[in-house]
């Protein structure tokens, strides 16, 4: 469905939901398949400069063994909360790619490397790409401070930021296509909050 048609249909459904006093408007809208969830993830715990076996290029810095296991536990809890991306876009940096692979392994989803998620992520390019996928659950895996600013731009005016510890994931809900400033922060989970 094209974006304009989807927006018009969404507007009509919202009016019906409001005037009919349907309890749980979001459930009503979701039942029509007009809700989109975007999961924004910061990469899991990676090695530091100067660690044994230094890799030289920062883009090659991998996740630690402990980071991999800890993130698996985070994802198992998020999967039980219905985190289910259809497509996972990731920065090509090793630590993000490994994080995205773990998301696909535990929660499902097809993996795509996107240069737009490398350091200095491009919001407009990511939004356009995500809307073109024509799916209801998309995940972006990137770096700080980019993920903080991207999320703030999706749910607000973009002047603030939302703190992302390593391994954090935020779910942003949209009624229709992804549009900056139109998202609702549905949940934001950290390993500490999840008891991992």
TrEMBL record:
Q: Which InterPro entries match?
A: His_Pase_superF_clade-1, His_PPase_superfam
Superkingdom as given in the UniProt entry: Bacteria
Residues making up the signal peptide according to the UniProt record: none
Alphabetical list of Pfam families matching this protein: His_Phos_1
Name it: Phosphohistidine phosphatase
- Organism encoding this protein: Aeoliella mucimassa
The taxonomic lineage of its organism, from the top, reads: Bacteria, Pseudomonadati, Planctomycetota, Planctomycetia, Pirellulales
């Amino acid at each position: 469905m094209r974006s304009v048609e989807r927006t018009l249909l969404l507007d009509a459904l919202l009016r019906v939901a409001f005037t009919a006093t349907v309890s749980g408007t979001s459930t009503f809208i979701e039942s029509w398949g007009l809700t989109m969830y975007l999961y924004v993830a910061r990469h899991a715990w990676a090695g530091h400069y100067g660690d044994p076996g230094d890799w030289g290029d920062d883009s090659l810095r991998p996740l630690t063994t402990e980071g991999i296991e800890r993130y698996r536990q985070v994802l198992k809890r998020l999967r039980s909360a219905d985190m289910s991306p259809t497509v996972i876009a990731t920065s090509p940096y090793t630590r993000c790619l490994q994080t995205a692979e773990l998301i696909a392994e535990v929660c499902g989803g097809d993996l795509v490397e996107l240069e737009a998620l490398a350091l200095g992520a491009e919001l407009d390019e990511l939004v356009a790409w995500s809307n073109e996928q024509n799916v209801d659950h998309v995940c972006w895996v990137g770096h700080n401070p980019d993920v903080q600013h991207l999320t703030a731009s999706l749910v607000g005016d973009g002047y603030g930021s939302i703190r992302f510890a390593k391994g954090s994931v935020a779910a942003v809900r949209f009624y229709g296509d992804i549009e900056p400033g139109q998202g609702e922060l549905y949940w934001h989970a950290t390993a500490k909050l999840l008891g991992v």
